[in-house]
Specification:
Blueprint lengths: L3 H14 L6 H15 L11 E2 L7 H5 L9 H10 L4 H8 L6 E3 L17 H10 L12 E3 L11 H7 L6 H8 L4 H9 L1 H15 L5 E2 L14
Antiparallel strand pairs: 1-4, 2-3
Helix pairs in contact: 5-10, 7-9, 9-10
Catalytic activity: 2 a phenolic donor + H2O2 = 2 a phenolic radical donor + 2 H2O
Keywords: Calcium, Disulfide bond, Heme, Iron, Metal-binding, Oxidoreductase, Peroxidase, Signal
EC number: 1.11.1.7
Length: about 230
């Protein structure tokens, strides 16, 4: 989401075919949906007709809606509940961490000066190779992939990793260690269809949360700027 180059490439193509029809809000939702499918995950229907806000926003504005990288299970479940997303749906949504990567800035607190006891020891040794300094440069390309086994496949490997305490973020392993969420982690590790089913249910709610329609917003010409 921080790299608008690709979003704007898609927007430019859409504007040539059907100018002023597809909002950037719809574009982002559809791109996310298709990205999941392209990486081997489930394909699902989403509603369209969103409008873009007329208020200019920044990365910092967007970050206020995200949990901090060191959030725990309580904060995670409470945040999801406020969106009317239940526990299995929430745990399925965070399973999207099966792809992507985490910057060392968000990992070193689990490695230095001592290793987080909830982190697999051999995995911690690997992460120290990826993140050798307790003070990484936030602008440098220093990261670890969420899933070393199938890093570019949208599967249920995330849950298999956290069962082995190989989750990158503190929350990942905590979901396995917490008795409220452990049963869902275990089931999703064993049943990819169940994971897909709950992921689709969660995405259906998430993508329809607090949307603008009709005269409440606009269809931007460029996704970074209001018209």
């Amino acid at each position: 989401m921080r790299n608008f180059k690709y979003v704007n490439d898609i927007k430019d193509a859409l504007e040539k075919e059907c100018p002023g029809v597809v909002s950037c809000a719809d574009l982002v939702v559809l791109s996310g949906r298709d990205g999941v499918a392209m990486l081997g995950g489930p394909h699902f229907e989403v509603k369209t007709g969103r409008r873009d806000t007329r208020v200019h926003t920044t990365e910092k504005d967007a970050d206020t809606y995200l949990l901090p990288h060191d959030a725990g299970v309580d904060a995670f479940l409470d945040t999801m509940a406020k969106l009317s997303i239940n526990a299995p749906q929430a745990i399925a949504l965070i399973g999207s961490h099966t792809v992507g990567r985490v910057h060392c800035v968000h990992l070193v607190s689990r490695l230095y000066p001592t290793v987080d006891p909830t982190l697999n020891a051999s995995y911690a040794d690997y992460l120290k190779i990826r993140c050798p300094s307790p003070n990484p440069d936030p602008t440098a390309v220093e990261y670890s992939r969420n899933d070393r086994g199938t890093p570019m496949i949208f599967d249920n490997n995330y849950y298999k990793n956290v069962i082995e305490l190989k989750g990158l973020l503190r929350l990942d392993n905590a979901l396995f260690l917490d008795p409220r969420t452990k049963p869902y982690v275990m089931r999703m590790a064993q049943d990819r269809d169940y994971f897909n089913e709950q992921f689709i249910a969660g995405m259906s709610i998430l993508t329809e949360h607090n949307v603008l329609t009709g005269s409440e917003g606009e269809i931007r010409k460029n996704c970074q700027w209001v018209n």
